[in-house]
Design goal:
The protein is mainly α and 211 residues long.
Length: 211
């Protein structure tokens, strides 16, 4: 594999993993599944990861068609996606919860929490969808698409691992270590969001000055 594909894989994986951030879902998963047995928690973790995988695959396959249908330019997507990613990064840096109090309360009385709120919006929310569409539009050759597909499957598998071991991770790491890790992910995500906006604005500026 050439350096170009290695760099594309690393950049795309870091972007998607940072925005999905399954570690941020660990405390939410623990709080919502305390009343369940170990077998039930394993089933919820599996279903939530499968749902998240399905959501990301839908936008991987249909992302370009969605842009064309709504008449959204690539530059517009990059700027909007960058703003969405920056908003998620700021929440992580400020240690804000991903779920609103109302969503938390509704989830505590639901029979099935695997799709909502775990898969959507916790793991595969608007930010991750924007990253997926951005990755597919940034692909420069057909070989990039299997790499993106592999990254989506890999991140979904990591989501399953993190959720499956959520109670162990929560006990071993503690809130301080988890907060520190999430803030690191938040900073990386902030840089990615800014770069998305730069990549969207620069072509518009070049077009404006050349016209």
């Amino acid at each position: 594999m050439s350096n170009e594909f290695v760099l594309f894989f690393i950049g795309s994986f870091v972007s998607l993993f940072s925005i999905v951030d399954p570690l941020l879902a660990v405390p939410v998963f623990v709080s919502l599944t305390e009343k369940y047995s170990s077998e039930k928690r394993a089933e919820i973790a599996k279903q939530a990861s499968i749902y998240a995988l399905g959501i990301l695959l839908v936008f991987f396959i249909a992302g370009g068609l969605i842009l064309k249908f709504f008449g959204i330019s690539l530059e517009g997507l990059r700027i909007a996606g960058g703003l969405m990613i920056i908003a998620s990064a700021i929440e992580m840096l400020q240690k804000k919860e991903r779920l609103l109090p109302q969503e938390q309360q509704e989830s505590e009385v639901k029979d099935d929490i695997s799709f909502s709120p775990l898969a959507m919006p916790l793991l595969s929310g608007p930010g991750s969808i924007a990253v997926i569409i951005g990755m597919t539009t940034d692909a420069k050759c057909w070989l990039h698409y299997p790499i993106i597909l592999f990254i989506i499957v890999l991140v979904a598998f990591l989501c399953y691992i993190f959720l499956r071991l959520a109670h162990i991770i929560s006990q071993k790491m503690g809130s301080t270590a988890m907060t520190s890790f999430n803030r690191i992910m938040g900073f990386i995500l902030l840089c990615i969001g800014v770069q998305y906006i730069v990549n969207g604005v620069m072509p518009l500026l070049k077009q404006a000055f050349n016209s």
